[in-house]
């Protein structure tokens, strides 16, 4: 029995060593409610969402080979049972997203860990709602920081704007608004040779050169690293 307990503790310790630490930091003036959606078959960490007050820092452990995405929800209100809504990035009216994705538009931080290196990016393919950055620490490889810290809401074309009380709260993607193959990279445009940047995606790319601006924006957007932990900062 003692041998089993010792072995069990060793296994737990080893798995903890393999885990990746995500640190969330809020530099915005108001609270942000980070949402977490795991990849298919991956663990739902931190129940998928929590509140992050201005200046607050919260750490979350992700298990070996985890994949998923993070985003910031804005203008949220929840009752004591965790039911409510967010102005942007809402995940079915719940504080804890529990595997659900955020309603676009939302700025995304995407990760695939230990495959065998980590792959990560910032994506505006689903639009933009809040500045976000990824900073690795302690890893080997390229391991560069990536960010989208420009306020795209200020320069968002009127046709893409999400308004609340006459203020621009988020900026939709052209695919979301027009839903045509050339903007969504669907149909006859499913190949990189066919689906090219548009005037709308170029606006996103000029403001945030590190980020995915459309579906096939791979060459300037994916970063690899091995054995790092990651700081995700809002604003």
TrEMBL record:
- What lineage does UniProt assign to this protein's organism? Eukaryota, Viridiplantae, Streptophyta, Embryophyta, Tracheophyta
User: Which SUPFAM superfamilies does this entry report, sorted A to Z?
Assistant: Osmotin, thaumatin-like protein
Keyword hit for Signal: yes
The record ties this protein, via InterPro entries, to:
Osmotin/thaumatin-like_sf (IPR037176), Thaumatin (IPR001938), Thaumatin_CS (IPR017949)
Superkingdom is Eukaryota
Q: Specify the signal sequence span.
A: 1-23
Q: Origin organism of this chain?
A: Papaver nudicaule (Iceland poppy)
Q: Name one Pfam family in it.
A: Thaumatin
Disulphide bond pairs:
28-235, 76-86, 91-97, 143-225, 148-208, 156-171, 175-184, 185-195
Keyword Signal applies: yes
Query: Sorted alphabetically, which PROSITE patterns does this protein's record hold?
Result: THAUMATIN_1 (PS00316), THAUMATIN_2 (PS51367)
Q: PANTHER family in the record, alphabetically?
A: OS03G0233200 PROTEIN
> What is the protein named?
Thaumatin-like protein
The alphabetical list of record keywords is:
Disulfide bond, Signal
The record's similarity note reads: Belongs to the thaumatin family.
């Amino acid at each position: 029995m003692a041998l089993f307990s010792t072995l069990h503790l060793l296994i737990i310790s080893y798995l903890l060593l393999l885990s990746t630490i995500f640190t969330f930091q809020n530099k915005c003036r108001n609270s942000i409610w980070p949402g977490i959606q795991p990849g298919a078959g991956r663990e739902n960490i931190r129940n998928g969402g929590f509140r992050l007050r201005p200046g607050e820092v919260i750490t979350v452990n992700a298990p070996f080979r985890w994949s998923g995405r993070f985003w910031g929800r804005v203008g949220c209100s929840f009752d004591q049972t965790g039911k409510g809504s967010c102005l942007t990035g809402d995940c079915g009216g719940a504080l804890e997203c529990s595997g659900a994705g955020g309603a676009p538009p939302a700025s995304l931080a995407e990760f695939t860990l230990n495959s065998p290196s980590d792959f990560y990016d910032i994506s505006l393919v689903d639009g933009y709602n809040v500045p976000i950055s990824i900073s690795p620490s302690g890893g080997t490889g390229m391991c560069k920081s990536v960010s989208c810290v420009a306020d795209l809401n200020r320069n968002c074309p009127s046709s893409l704007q999400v308004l609340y009380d006459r203020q621009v709260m988020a900026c939709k993607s052209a695919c979301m608004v027009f839903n045509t193959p050339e903007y969504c990279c669907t149909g006859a445009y499913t190949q990189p040779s066919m689906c090219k940047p548009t005037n709308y995606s170029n606006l996103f790319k000029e403001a945030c050169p590190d980020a995915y601006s459309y579906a096939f924006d791979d060459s300037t957007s994916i970063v690899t690293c091995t054995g790092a932990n990651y700081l995700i900062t809002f604003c």
